[in-house]
Amino acid sequence: MKQKTHYSEALAYLRDYCLRHGRLMHFSHGDIFEAEGAAARLFGYIESGSFQYLVRNYEGGESTVETVAAGDLVGCYPYCLDGDAAPVTARADKPCTVYVVDSQQLNQHFLQSKEAAQVALQFLNYRFAQLHQHRRQYHFTHQPEDE
Q1: 27 FRET partner, CA 20 to 30 A, in 45, 72, 75, 128?
Q2: What range defines the domain where residue 26 resides?
């Protein structure tokens, strides 16, 4: 029988990977981690601070669809694994310290260790599916009214 991977175990694995292999970066309030529409290339563990995931709204501004804080991960998964366009902007809403891993490095690690990939991908699919659900829900509930 296959053992179910728990959310906290997978988060701990990814946190440890970022701490061991990532480079420590500092973000000031308003700094962008990933920009909507640009190639997603980063992934990281937030040691301090928080980021807002933002989408462009129909009025031309930005709206927050989710916030992630210290102890969580930041990045546009799974888009970062292939360098696809980020569907959201991740912007620091207060000063942040993040252990950042280049997504190509993370992808290479997953290719070398199928067990690591399975643990991490279960978490990432769960965690970032929530973000994308919030993004889709925002667009569905905030459509412009016909004039």
Answers
A1: 128
A2: 7-139
